[in-house]
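User: My instructor asked us to take a sequence, write out its structure as tokens, and then describe one feature of it. I'm not sure where to start. Here is the sequence I was given:
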Amino acid sequence: MKFTLFYQIILFLFLTIITQIGGLVFIVSQIICKKIRRQLFWEKAFIFTVLYCFTTFIVVPPIALVFGRERVISNKNLKPANYWTIILNRNYVKPEVNNLLSKTSDKIMDLSSNIRIHYLDANFPFIDGFPLFPHLSHNDGKKLDLSFIYKDVKGNQTNLLKSRSGYGIFEGPKENEENFTLQCKNKGFYQYDYAKFFTFGTINKDLQLSEKHTSKLISLLLENNFLEKIFIEPHLSRRMRITDQRIRFQGCHSVRHDDHIHFQIK
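Assistant: Let's start with the prediction itself. The structure tokens for your sequence are:
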């Protein structure tokens, strides 16, 4: 009995940390299973899955509006890097973020109809200050991560990514560029490159960073006056010759940003 309770507490905490709503859905599903006398593991798992999907796709979106958040709105040129972002409720933003994304995707489509913006983690649907693990600041609906844009071995722009999660495959500094990762780790900030453990699988290893298209994406983001800041590793912003006071170094207390673009609005 004690072991079962311990297991349930751990599962509740885990589901809450990664989805925000999963822990509550788990409790409700356990109550339902008890009421209808379903004790087999597969029965409980099935009931939880159905209830979780119903809550995620039907119940949560209208309630999130009360908290001033909505799901990232995809279009032809704006897609999630992977659909786990949606399934885990990590795709909620303020309406102003969607407006910015819509304008940016329209402009990038004018540049090339083949370029697709891939979004990564955004925010949970409810409660300012509720942490989105493992991020430090994705807790108010104002932040969103975007993938870099890559090119293939022939130099052609592609919409493929280098990891299944969109994180953890770094575009490190060259020999003549300042190495902030080494500096931060030498200062004792050992978490600085921990994103390498969250790739969930390396793919398309031959891809290279498309500096041309990635810098264009960042420039289009910067055209919006209500954009507050962008985090990207200094060696990349210097290499791509992007100069704007809103381009920032996130600090050693965070994690390195040479695997994705982080932006936030005012």
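For the description part of your assignment, you could build on this observation: The two ends are 50 Å apart (CA to CA). Try explaining in your own words what that tells you about the chain.
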